[in-house]
Structure formats: C-alpha cells, structure tokens
Amino acid sequence: TLQWLNPQKFTIFLNTHQVLRDQRYKLLRYSKDELSIQLSNLTVQDEGIYKCLYYSKHVQTKSQNVEILAAPSHPVLEVSQDEGRGIKLSCCTQGGRPQPQISWLLDNGIELPGDTRHQLGAGGKKWSTRSTLRILSYSPKVTASCIIQHPALGARRLVASFHFQDLLSTEDAEIPSPSENPAVSSPSASPEDPAVPSSAPTPAQP
Description:
Elements: E1 2-5, E2 11-14, E3 17-18, E4 25-31, E5 34-39, E6 48-55, E7 59-66, E8 76-82, E9 86-96, E10 101-106, E11 111-112, E12 115-120, E13 127-137, E14 143-149, E15 158-163, H1 164-174, E16 196-197
Antiparallel strand pairs: 1-2, 1-6, 2-3, 4-5, 6-7, 8-9, 9-13, 10-11, 10-14, 12-13, 13-16, 14-15
C-alpha cells in the first residue's frame, strides 16, 4: 500500500484512490512500489513537507519539501535630497518569496549592494524589500539603476533607473532664483564627475 500526505497530514492518494478532492492533484503512475502524483496551480499556502508512505512489513517514509516561489513586483524608485548629505535613492519591491536580491549599478560600471531591509508581509509568506543608496556627488549625465534578482525570474532581472539630469531639471523649475532665495542653490556638478556613493571618500573642498 502506498499513500501520499500533504503538509497538513491529509491523505491525497491511497494507492489509486484519490482521497483529497482537489483537482490540482493528478495521479501519474502507480505500481506496487511506485505512486507518482502531479501538483499544479500551487500557491504559497501549499508549500511544506509532502510525505510518501510505503506500507509493507514496516512503514517506510520519504519526504519532499515543496517551496513556492513568488516573483517580486517591479521596483519603484524614490528620490529625496538632504541638504549637505547628497541624494538618497530608495528602491522598493513587494510580494517576493524568498527574499529578492537588490543591487545598484552606476554608469561607470560600479555595482553596489546598498542598505537592504526585508519585512515579512501580514500573511507571513511574502516579503517587502527596500534598498537605499546615498550619493554624495554626481554628474547630470550619470544614471543609477536598481536591479532586482530572484529565483522566480530566472535569468531575467527587474530594473528601475534614475537619471540625475531629471533631478536638476526639477530643481531648476521649482527653486527660486538666488536673488529671491539666496540660502538655496542647485547642486553644482561637473559633467565629468561620476556619481559618488556615501561609502566613497569625499574630496576636500578648498
């Protein structure tokens, strides 16, 4: 006699008899020493340890851990600026299982890990992930990209990019002229200067 149990210890199949009335389970092969089944359309609630029991003179048990992968959402990029502390980039993604990997890529080819935090969702199954990167100085021509990697994506990566030129254009439109507000000025940047993350030393100013 052969028997398959789901993680909740309910019998799925007993020999060829389907005990658990769930159309997502299908019998593939049955013989005196094999009971193969197929699971389809699974959700994170279906993951866990599935057990196959073989009843002879002694009960033999084999277990299979089923882990459900959930792809994270497309990243959302947020930008904020602190006076005297440069630019803060935040990259957020939700719904990943297991936790996604987030890195930052600058135009000069440097890839950085950033400061990444994971938070488990209310259901206790999927993760919300946020990574932050602080840029001390930058060039308008530089682009910073947030890159999401996850097993459910395979070789594909999710990317969200920010062009520092967009920040300068926004400041030009919103900030009054120096004569009206001398305490506020747009950040100066040379086109030849690459973006410098907070982990890099800041050159001394004369």
